[in-house]
């Protein structure tokens, strides 16, 4: 199974840390966020990972080139000076991801999820990992009835973890252009074409320097 790590963002909320270091290369627990993702993908048996770049992409490419060889094939795809956002970046990478379902991971999250448990053939158009709503996002993103992702209803509401498995058909007709993922997921929700599961383990959205430092403290041995 193939995967993609979204690594093209500017990381405005992380400035000044990201002025000279791309967000996926920020370190927690003694290793860059990107390396945590690559290690989990390899452990889960993935065969290829595509990493998109834009802001300070040359630093990410140099870092990946310097990693020790593994069974995981790493392919890079550059979006130029301006990132295509989530859906646009994925659409741009579809030729490298292939015709089968694939996993996408936001480069600025940290999660202890065993990626091998994600469905290789999701029902509908995709399967999302959901987590409890963090303090900085108490309203959540989606309703969830224990199986299907719902846009409205009385079911509890959870936060999208930035980890999902998608069929290429979710991005049908979308050209490589600036486009967010949220509208595509919302439409799939309305058609009941998304499933999901609630991850009860650890998950961090490393979106601010304070959360980065907190995660680093959590992962650094005493």
Describe this structure in words.
- The chain is an alpha/beta fold.
- Helices cover 24% and strands 26% of the residues.
- The protein is built from 5 helices and 13 strands.
- It has helices at 33-43, 57-65, 85-97, 182-190, 209-219; strands at residues 2-6, 27-28, 31-32, 48-53, 73-78, 102-106, 109-111, 126-131, 142-144, 149-150, 157-166, 194-198, 203-205.
- The strands form 3 sheets. Strands 1, 4, 5, 6, 8, 9, 10, 11 and 12 form a 9-stranded mixed β-sheet that branches. Strands 2-3 form a two-stranded antiparallel sheet.
- A hairpin with a 2-residue loop joins strand 2 (27-28) and strand 3 (31-32).
- The longest helix has 13 residues, at 85-97.
- The protein is globular and about 45 Å long.
- It starts with a strand and ends with a helix.
- The model has no long low-confidence stretch (mean pLDDT 93).
- InterPro entries: GlmU-like, MurU, NTP_transferase_dom, Nucleotide-diphossugar_trans.
- It comes from Spiribacter roseus.
Record the SSE blueprint:
Blueprint: E1 2-6, E2 27-28, E3 31-32, H1 33-43, E4 48-53, H2 57-65, E5 73-78, H3 85-97, E6 102-106, E7 109-111, E8 126-131, E9 142-144, E10 149-150, E11 157-166, H4 182-190, E12 194-198, E13 203-205, H5 209-219
Parallel strand pairs: 1-4, 1-6, 4-5, 8-12
Antiparallel strand pairs: 2-3, 6-11, 7-13, 8-11, 9-10, 9-11
């Amino acid at each position: 199974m193939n995967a993609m790590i979204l690594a093209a963002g500017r990381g405005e909320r992380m400035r000044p840390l990201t002025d000279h270091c791309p967000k996926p290369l920020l370190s927690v627990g003694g290793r860059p966020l990107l390396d945590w993702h690559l290690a989990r993908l390899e452990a889960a048996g993935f065969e290829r990972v595509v990493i998109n770049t834009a802001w300070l992409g040359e630093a990410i490419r140099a870092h990946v080139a310097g990693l020790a060889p593994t069974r995981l094939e790493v392919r890079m795809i550059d979006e130029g000076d301006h990132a295509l956002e989530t859906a646009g970046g994925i659409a741009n990478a579809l030729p490298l991801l292939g015709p089968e379902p694939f996993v996408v991971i936001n480069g600025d999250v940290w999660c202890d999820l065993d990626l091998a448990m994600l469905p290789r053939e999701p029902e509908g158009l995709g399967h999302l990992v959901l987590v409890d709503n963090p303090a900085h996002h108490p309203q959540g993103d989606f309703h969830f009835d224990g199986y299907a992702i719902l846009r409205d209803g009385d079911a509890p509401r959870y936060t999208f973890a930035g980890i999902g498995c998608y069929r290429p058909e979710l991005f049908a007709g979308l050209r490589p252009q600036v486009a967010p993922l949220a509208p595509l997921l919302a439409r799939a929700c309305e058609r009941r074409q998304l499933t999901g599961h609630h991850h009860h383990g650890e998950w961090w959205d490393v979106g601010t320097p304070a959360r980065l430092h907190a995660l680093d403290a959590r992962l650094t041995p005493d």
